[in-house]
Amino acid sequence: MFYGLLIMFIVIISYILYKGYKNTQDVAVNYTKLGNPSSHSPTIRILHVSDMHLENISITPDQLYKKISDKQVDLIALTGDFLDRKWTIPKLIPYLNILKKLQPTYGAYVVFGNHDYVLRERNFKKLKEVFHEHGFKTLQNEREMIEVNGKAVNIIGIDDFSTGRSDLVKSYQNVGEGYHLVLTHDPNIVLHMAEHRFDYLLSGHFHGGQIHWPKPYHLVKMGKLARMKMVKGLHHFRGAPFYISEGLGQTGINIRFGSQPEITYHDILLDDVVKKEAGEATIAG
Ligand SMILES: [Fe+2]
């Protein structure tokens, strides 16, 4: 009797883990479109990948390439949590090589997440070097200006909020006119950005809950946005849109329930129509 129940228990748990693992292989390709379609502003297509968590990623570089090779992209944005362990760093290289093959017109930009900062300083330095050697620009409270058909676009990389590394003043230093595209890992930073305008912000961090069933109780500890049930997709802060990617890899155990790994294309009309007037801070889903 006891052994019968034990075997049944093991079979059920194995089945649940198998189903959860299969869910991690089902990568969604999502699209957002932003801006006023009647404006004549230049457009930009961004490929956004977040939370690769290379210790627990189910999509191989070749499979990823098959998903993304048919589209021209103008810019690549990687919003942190690549890995936690130094011996995973070489695993990043084939992914960077396939992303590089897309030859984004305006380059590829990287911000780091809380997991990347688990690395010892010298290993973190190595991680950064790998990005630089492969032509990816890292932004830690820094910005880069690009010009898209005559329109200035400030790419503002705000360092990770959850580990206390965000420095908004430094990030916005010398940021001039133009479209403000913010890249950051933890979207909770938007709640502190009343004085720092953005036209669009890309982030990740929550994995859409990862195990979002029956309820993502563990997200309660992950800041105010999570408690407001904003853990994935497009939302607004004071009228300005921000996007939370569900991420490509998994943390802890390589399973997902009620969430799906994703890569995202953002097609943006660079018309910065959203005016950030001083007023009530409002969040709308
Ligand atoms: Fe993550």
UniProtKB/TrEMBL annotation:
Transmembrane segments: none annotated. Keywords: Hydrolase, Metal-binding. Residues 44-208 form the Calcineurin-like phosphoesterase domain. The keyword Hydrolase applies. This is Metallophosphoesterase. It comes from Oceanobacillus luteolus.
